[in-house]
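User: quick one, fold this
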Amino acid sequence: MEISNVLIEHISFVRVLAIAGIIGMTDKELADELGTEKDTVRMFRSFRTSILVAPWMAMNINNFLYKNSHLLKGLSDGIANLDYLIGREDQ
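Assistant:
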């Protein structure tokens, strides 16, 4: 059985980096949280389109966003609609 990669929208990477900045996380701390390497987090900063990632990375990104979405609530640029975008509007 082949496990296919998952498309992660560019805005998700922007949200991850925004939350990390609000919390004051270093690239190393964010990498540890997402289960990846520091260089991968640096690459997040250069993405300008959506990309395919491994399923475990997609799950880690979505869990990080879900757990920390309250930090983006009320921002005027509209990036705070995480519950709707990741399908967890029941919260």
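User: anything notable?
Assistant: The beta strands are 6-8, 51-53.
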